[in-house]
Specification:
The chain is an alpha+beta fold. Helix content is about 20%, strand content about 35%. It contains four helices and seven strands; from the N terminus they run ββαααβββββα.
Length: about 160
């Protein structure tokens, strides 16, 4: 049996992303998405890809790739203020055991077509040790990061964090 070396995605919480009002999906080694047409299966998978795009480029680029904010933020039955995505992972051997939680809330920015990262949280737990950060109003809180300064509007902080511990 081969031991996985990458973090194992345990749970995903999504709210107000495209057709998804809210969903909370617990992952198992075999996960099958089943539902009728237009139930949100593709939007669920796209939300995971959105996270990757937002981390590798910027949240503004990820939104633009999907046709703009009006296409990303849930509109019906009422317009939501933004999207929230939360990922929970297990760190598996050989990197060591632990838990990783990451969450962000993206809203429309102050100028037309801009995006604001309203809140971003990251927490890494290994045994008794916890490290991480919180970003709110472009201000970073968290003593275990190398980066000092503020975060640009529309950017996620995690790629810059350089978490040490």
């Amino acid at each position: 049996m081969v031991t996985p070396v990458a973090p194992f995605l345990r749970r995903v919480y999504i709210s107000h992303y495209k057709s998804i009002d809210s969903c909370n999906v617990t992952f198992t080694p075999l996960l099958v998405l089943v539902g009728p047409n237009a139930a949100g299966k593709s939007n669920f998978l796209d939300a995971l890809e959105f996270v990757v795009d937002a981390l590798y480029a910027s949240s503004e680029d990820a939104v633009d790739k999907r046709g703009g904010l009006s296409e990303v933020i849930r509109r019906a039955p009422t317009r939501a203020d933004g999207i929230r995505i939360r990922l929970e992972c297990s760190l598996l051997p050989p990197k060591g055991s632990g838990e990783f939680e990451y969450e962000f809330h993206i809203t429309p920015g102050t100028t037309r077509h801009s995006v604001e990262v309203r809140e971003e949280k990251c927490l890494l737990r290994r045994g008794e040790t916890s490290i991480g950060f919180t970003v709110g109003n472009k201000i970073i809180r968290g003593v275990n990061t190398k980066y000092k300064g503020s975060v640009k509007q529309g950017r996620l902080f995690l790629p810059l964090a350089g978490i040490t511990g």
